[in-house]
Design goal:
The chain is of the alpha/beta class and 236 residues long. It has one domain: Alpha-Beta Complex (Spore Coat Polysaccharide Biosynthesis Protein SpsA, Chain A). It is built from nine helices and seven strands; from the N terminus they run βααβαβαβαβαβααβα. It has a seven-stranded mixed β-sheet with strand order 3-2-1-4-6-5-7, with helices on both faces. The longest helix has 18 residues. The protein is globular, with a radius of gyration of 17 Å.
């Protein structure tokens, strides 16, 4: 299977090299391409990616302005599908999610056990020990319970930015209609439920360093409530 890694990137000049350096050789040998979407960065992200492209199969796609996290994913998925990829991994460029686990993330898809795999920092039960701020941890728990109740699902985390999608899964979703913002991920999960696709979760370690977050927790929480309301009215 041809594997692509989609990496939204916004002002990650300090971290993106470290993400590539953490990739095991076995993973690198399996990955056909890295699609890095620079979402209007104003630091040296582009320069770092160009440097990395000398030793990695990187496709750099640049947004002239900051369009949003969801918009960056859309661009990446469009590119991966156009390139004929079979499995598409979403990996953040800030180092919070473990690139070392890419092969574990894609394995359930390759074995035919899942259409989508989500990395869950909650499933391992050690998110706080890994440095997740308490407001994010408990907010995640509360929102996830509410989403499970409304959607009739049984996930431990709706808010992970570490995913692996089969080609079939992405082609089944009208993701072009979804948000350009951070709640794009939750809309994707709603779409997966409506499409009847199989989702498997894997525990992943939590790592919080000095990376700057571009996510306002309160605004994000209300946006998730909006997703649920639109779901109940059949608008997603």
């Amino acid at each position: 299977m041809k594997v692509a890694v989609v990496m939204p990137a916004y002002n990650v000049g300090k971290t993106i090299e470290g993400v590539f350096n953490r990739l095991p050789g076995e993973s690198l040998s399996r990955i056909s391409e890295f699609i890095v979407i620079d979402d209007g960065s104003i630091d040296d992200t582009v320069e770092k990616v160009i440097k990395l492209s000398g030793s990695h199969p990187i496709i750099l796609v640049r947004h002239g302005t900051n369009r949003g996290y969801g918009a960056a994913q859309k661009t990446g998925y469009d590119q991966a599908l156009a390139d004929g990829m079979d499995v598409i991994v979403l990996l953040h460029s800030d180092g919070q999610y473990p690139p070392e686990m890419i092969l574990e993330m894609i394995r359930p898809i390759e074995e035919g056990r899942a259409d989508v795999v989500g990395g869950s920092r909650i499933l391992g039960g050690r998110a706080l020990e890994g440095g997740m701020p308490q407001i994010k941890y408990y907010g995640n728990i509360c929102l996830t319970r509410l989403q499970n109740l409304v959607l009739g699902m049984d996930l431990t985390c709706y808010h992970s930015g570490y995913k692996a999608y089969s080609r079939r899964a992405l082609e089944s979703l009208p993701y072009a209609r979804y948000s350009k913002k951070f709640h794009f991920d939750s809309e994707m999960l709603v779409g997966l439920k409506r499409a009847g696709l199989r989702i498997v979760e894997l525990p992943i370690p939590t790592r919080y360093g000095g990376e700057k977050s571009h996510l306002n927790c309160v605004t994000y929480g209300f946006s998730i409530l909006g997703v649920l309301v639109r779901y109940l009215f059949g608008r997603i």
